[in-house]
Amino acid sequence: MRKASEVFDEIQRWAEADDQIRGLVLSSGRVDGNDTVDLLSDYDVIVYVRDLEPYKRDDNWLEAFGSVMTRSPPLPTLFDDVRIGRMVIYDDGVRIDWSIANAESMHDLNGEPEPYRVLLDKDRIVKNPILPYHSAYHVQRPSKDEYDELVADFWWDIIYVAKALWRDELYWAKHMNRKVHSPFLEKVIEWHIGMINDWSVTTNKHGRWFKRYLDPGTWAEIESTYSGADLDQNWDALFNATRLFRRLAVTVAAEMDFDYPHETDRRVTAYMGKIRRLDRDAEDFV
Question: Does domain 4-136 have CATH number 3.30.70.3400?
């Protein structure tokens, strides 16, 4: 696999040699070059060009950076009428997510809230060559309404998992379990991490960086909410998820001066326990 310096040099030389290309901008994780970047991190590159038409017609230009293993979408696709997206993995494992944009839109970077680093600006359009990550990406405090709605939704949707397990509908149970984990359990974990870090950290997308911020005990609790295909193990994971959700949601409520619905929690937990104890051929809910 090429080193990052080699990838950037190749892109830079290619863009400098083509008068049609007016600018190059790096976005996303590699902007800061921090410790979240690793061997498998992709390169998010925006190429600003005078004319989008050649890039709509074919992908031949992609081969300038190596043999393409796979790409998405399969054909050049225009997004929002202003950009062509080409996500590419090359045979050596380098992944580059290309965005081809009209050169005029480079002016938009002067009011851009998203992080970026300018690699090339032939027309000297951009005022600030780098906009690093900032507090807008930190975990945000929930409002009372947001908290109340999420907790209520958790205790509603988790019942679907219990019903599916009793019916031996494993695939459906797994589907609903994913819906319970994300966004409900995931969001409460995120709030917990924000709370214990003075709301000054980001956990990235869908819990990607949870493990780096959590103590070993809490991480072990998260692991216990996952299971394989065995129904009893899935039941155990379900109730482990409720215990973890309860513990974290209660601490967040205490911090934010919200009310946690203990009575709803108690009644729904008891209801699901009753479902678990039902015989498979039960006709009465006793």
Answer: no
By DSSP bridging, strand 68-79 and strand 83-90 are antiparallel
What is the pLDDT at residue 30? 80
Domain ranges of the chain: 4-136, 138-277
**Location of structure tokens 């300018």:** 118
φ/ψ bin of 124: left (φ > 0), alpha (ψ from -120 to 50), beta (otherwise): left
**d(C-alpha 89, C-alpha 68), whole Å:** 6
Q: In this predicted model, what pLDDT tens digit does every residue of 20-34 receive, in sequence order? A: 999 999 987 787 666
How big, in percent rounded to 5, are the helix, strand and coil portions of the chain? 50, 15, 30
Q: Does domain 138-277 have CATH number 3.30.300.30?
A: no
This prediction has a pTM of: 0.81
Q: What does the alpha-carbon distance between residue 216 and residue 222 come to, in Å, rounded to a whole number? A: 10
